[in-house]
Amino acid sequence: MNKNIIIASTSTLHGGDYLEYLLPELRLHFKHCKKILFIPFARPGGISHEEYTAKVATAFAKINIKVKGIHEFEDFSTAVSNAEGIFTGGGNTFLLVSQLYKNKIMTILAETVKRGTPYLGTSAGSNICGLTMQTTNDMPIIYPPSFITLGLVPFNLNPHYLDPDTTSTHMGETREARITEFHAFNNVPVLGLREGSWLEVKGDQTTLKGTLQARLFMPNQTPVEIESGTDLSYLK
Amino acid sequence: MNKNIIIASTSTLHGGDYLEYLLPELRLHFKHCKKILFIPFARPGGISHEEYTAKVATAFAKINIKVKGIHEFEDFSTAVSNAEGIFTGGGNTFLLVSQLYKNKIMTILAETVKRGTPYLGTSAGSNICGLTMQTTNDMPIIYPPSFITLGLVPFNLNPHYLDPDTTSTHMGETREARITEFHAFNNVPVLGLREGSWLEVKGDQTTLKGTLQARLFMPNQTPVEIESGTDLSYLK
C-alpha cells in the first residue's frame, strides 16, 4: 500500500500558533497539493464548520496551500476520493465519528488514504486512524453508530498522552489506568503520543517523529517507552 | 417520590481509606439495612467482581453492614428489587452501563431507587444517576447499547470535577471545555462535583453536601459556583 500519513498528537504546542510546529513537515507532506480537503466535523469547543475551516486555511496559507471544507461540497464521497490531500482536525472524537458515519464517508475515507492520498490527522483526526476510537480522551457528547474507525494503522492511538502527575491529589484515573482498563477488554496495542510527537506512515513503514518518546501499551505487558525514529511496523 | 440517594463524586479522598470520609453519612443513610446489594460492574482497573465486592465489604464492615455482590445472585432483577439498600461503585462508566443493559436491570434499578430503596453511587455509580452518561470522564472501552442512564435526577453529573490547571502547558481540553462541547449538542444541565462533595436526594429535595462548592453548567450560560447546602430541586 502507498500510504502517506501524518498522525499528530496535537495541532498546537503550548505558546505556538495553530499547526506552527508541523508546518515544515506539512510543506513536504503536501508538496504535490495545491489545495487540500479539510474535514471539520470534530468542531472543537463547538465552533462551526465555517469558522474551523477559516482557521485551518490561515495556517495552510503560510505554505501556499488552499483549503476547502468538506461541508462546501454537494457530494462528500466524491470530495474525499478526488482530494489532492486530506486533513481531519481535532475536537470531539464522538462527534467526528458520528458525522463520518452519518455522511457515509468512513469507508471511502479509509480506502482513499490507503490508496495514497496524503492525509494529516491531529488529535481527534489522529484517533480515527486507529482500529477503533476507544482510546480517545473525549466526552461522549453524541452516540455514534460504532466505535470502529479507519484502521490506517493496526493499533489504537491515545493523542495528548499525559504522564501521571505524581504531585496530584486528584483521585480520578490516570491516563495509564484508563488504558489498562481498555486492555482488560481489548487486545489492541495502544500508542500514547505526547504533544509534539507524530507518526509518519509511508507505505508499510510507521516511524515515530518529533523529539519526544512515545509510550506503548501492549495487552498484559508493562508499558514501554519508544524512542523517536523507531520503526513501529512490527506492531500488529 | 420517596427517593433516598447519595450521589458522591468519589469513593476515596487523597490519603484516606476507601469510603472513609463518607462512613458517618452512610451509617445514617443505610440505618435500616443489615445487608446491601453491591453492583461491581464498573470494575476499576479491571479488577474482578469478587475482588471489588470484598473491598466494599471491608469498608461497610466498619459500620456493621454486610455486602453481597449482584453477581452472586441467580436472578439479578429480583436481587435489585428485593435489596434493602444498593451501592454502585466506580470504575468505567461505559462498562457499567453496558452491563446494566446486558443484564436487563437498568429499568428495574431506576424503579427500585425511585420507590425509596436507599442508593449510594460513587464516581461511575454516580454518573448513571443522571439522565445520560454523556458527561463521564471515562474511556469508551466497550460500546454500550445506549448512553441513557437511570435519570434519578433531572440533570447530568460530572464526578471528579477538576478545575483548569492554570500552570499547565498541556493542550488537551479542560473539563470545562469538554462540558461546553456537550452543551453544543445537548441542553441538559451538568453538575461538576468536586472530590469530597456529594448530593443528597431525599424525596423531591436535592442538596449539595460536603465542604466544597460544586460547578453548575447550564446550556448557553456562564458556569456558576453552587454553595454547599444549596437545594438544587429547581433544576429541570
Key structural traits:
homodimer; 236 residues; Rossmann fold; 7-stranded mixed beta sheet; 4-stranded mixed beta sheet
Task: Describe this protein's structure.
The structure is a homodimer of 236-residue chains. The first copy, chain A, is of the alpha/beta class. Chain A has one domain (4-226): Class I glutamine amidotransferase (GATase) domain (Rossmann fold). Helices cover 25% and strands 19% of the residues of chain A. Chain A contains seven helices and eleven strands. The first copy, chain A, has a seven-stranded mixed sheet. The longest helix of chain A is centred in the first third of the chain and has 13 residues, at 49-61.
Quick recap:
The structure is a homodimer of 236-residue chains. With 236 residues, the first copy, chain A, is an alpha/beta fold. Chain A has helices spanning 23-29, 49-61, 76-82, 93-102, 106-115, 124-127, 175-183, and strands spanning 4-8, 35-39, 66-69, 86-88, 119-122, 156-158, 190-192, 198-202, 205-209, 214-217, 224-226.
